[in-house]
User: Which sequence fits this backbone?
């Protein structure tokens, strides 16, 4: 069950700073698309996303969009964002994460996984030894996404407590 608890819990990806990543020796991030970077209904990135990605890159952090969605969806979004990506990532299976690490040229211990799902992003990231950052989904108003959140809520709360305890010891 501990593999389902994120290292960090944030309201949004915009709360993840280069300083936090540097503090953990993170040099690359795998960021989920749907529900994390944009709503699954948004064809193109929001205006706030490119500056966020640029801030990470300027701090020396490589950014890779890492999605289980199809090429047509992910490719169009990432072309507009100017970001590299892996679609059909097979999260939470480890070989997709290893493929992403190889593409970035980094060990998984220097990678953070950022996403809005406990059973794909957090589980997969924790299983391969990456730093895991859960963010509140942008799609919570959809019925089935809210049902999933209700199932995940206990793990999210434990992640918040883990994060608070870490803050007291750093």
Assistant:
């Amino acid at each position: 069950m501990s593999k389902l608890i994120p290292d960090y819990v944030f309201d949004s990806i915009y709360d993840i700073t280069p300083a936090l990543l540097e503090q953990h020796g993170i040099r690359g991030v795998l960021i989920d698309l749907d529900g994390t970077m944009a709503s699954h209904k948004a064809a193109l990135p929001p205006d706030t996303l490119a500056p966020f990605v640029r801030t990470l890159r300027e701090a020396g952090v490589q950014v890779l969009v890492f999605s289980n969605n199809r090429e047509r969806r992910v490719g169009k979004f990432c072309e507009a964002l100017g970001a590299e990506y892996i679609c059909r990532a097979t999260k939470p299976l480890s070989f997709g994460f290893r493929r992403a690490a190889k593409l970035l040229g980094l060990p998984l211990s220097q990678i953070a996984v950022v996403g809005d799902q406990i059973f794909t992003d957090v589980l997969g990231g924790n299983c391969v030894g990456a730093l895991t950052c859960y963010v509140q989904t942008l799609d919570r108003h959809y019925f089935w996404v809210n049902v999933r959140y209700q199932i995940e809520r206990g793990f999210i709360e434990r992640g918040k407590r883990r994060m608070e305890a870490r803050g007291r010891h750093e």
